[in-house]
Design a protein that fits this description.
Layout: H1 2-21, H2 24-37, H3 41-66, H4 70-77, H5 81-112, H6 116-132, H7 136-161, H8 166-174, H9 181-192, H10 196-206, H11 215-245, H12 255-293, H13 300-304, H14 306-324, H15 328-353, H16 356-359, H17 367-395
Helix pairs in contact: 1-7, 1-10, 1-11, 1-12, 2-9, 2-11, 2-12, 3-8, 3-9, 3-10, 3-11, 3-15, 3-17, 4-5, 4-15, 5-6, 5-12, 5-14, 5-15, 6-12, 6-14, 7-11, 7-12, 10-12, 11-12, 12-14, 15-17
Subcellular location: Membrane
Transmembrane segments: 36-55, 76-98, 110-134, 146-175, 181-201, 222-249, 269-295, 307-324, 330-355, 367-389
InterPro entries: NRAMP_fam (IPR001046)
Length: 397
Amino acid sequence: MKQKKNWSVLLGAAFLMATSAVGPGFLTQTTVFTQALGASFGFVILISVILDIGVQLNVWRVIAVSQKRAQDIANTVLPGLGLFISALIVLGGLAFNIGNIGGAGLGFNVLFGVSAELGAAVAAAIAIAVFLVREAGKVMDRFAQIMGLLMILLIVYVAVTSAPPVGAAVASTFVPAEVDVIAIVTLVGGTVGGYITFAGGHRLLDAGIKGEDALPQVNTSAVSGITVASIIRIFLFLAALGVVSQGLALDAKNPPASVFQLAAGTVGYKLFGVVMLSAAITSVIGAAYTSVSFLKSFHKSIAQNENWLIIAFIVVSTLIFVTIGKPVRLLILAGALNGLILPITLGTILVAAYSKRVMGTTYRHPVLLTIFGVLVVLVMALMGGYTLIEQLPQLFA
């Protein structure tokens, strides 16, 4: 019975991480890069998957062994650093959640023709309902699993319908005609950046899966999360590649919707609505849960009222979207900050991995994971800094 319960939590954490990553931005990002790079985008996916696994294993293992949340680890490494990281995560999570709420509204608009604002309110109500249940953690796990599997099935159907050149995609994955470093960095940041990095790790900690003895389970859950997100990415890539290879033009205003519609007609367009809705609601839940988990250490009352704070987080995100709309400048800044959050948080985790104050005296962090981690920190810091410098003038224009 115990093993069955553990598997439920492990898969729940994996799907929470994966579905947090697969939001409206993920769908658009994958489609746009496929349109630009064609079959060579397969190579970008391959490299990003390897880097993603390295990031998640580093972070989740250190959280499990230290038995501390990321902000507490950071404060142990350097007093005050945890508060700074928490502020970045929460502000970034709120900004992106406004976009997630908007994506959910778009999903309802496609399915039922209602306004995006009304759809957003309904989606928020569904997300809030998850946290009104007594055992919200278990409901969240199961909801993420069901929505994740639904997205995979629908995207696989559209990929098959679009008849992509699979042979060319496989060949270009290993021998690309073009390599786009910015695309790799964007994918890594979009899959394991910001709050997403910690979604599954914090969920496992809350569920009591921690300590060195739990590392095999932690490894399995981390790799499973990246695998689920990657399966969705790969089949969405194949669906888009099939459409692009036929010389069909995608609608610049909504590229992923174009892929579904051009591949499977009106039915495909409705399926896009289901996928967008599933991706957006699960991202709303993941962003709210993980963002609030970064505040739990600062006062007992926060931990005691966690679900109500999560609900408040969702309500605020929805009100901003409904009353103001998607705040473009805020989202631009959040996107730039997201590129910087990963190197700061992952860098902190790597330092902590070799700190006896954090990890104890018996744990030895794998050298290969450290090398992967340092590589990601350096690349993401350079690209995140470049993006921030490029976009800051637009914020004050």
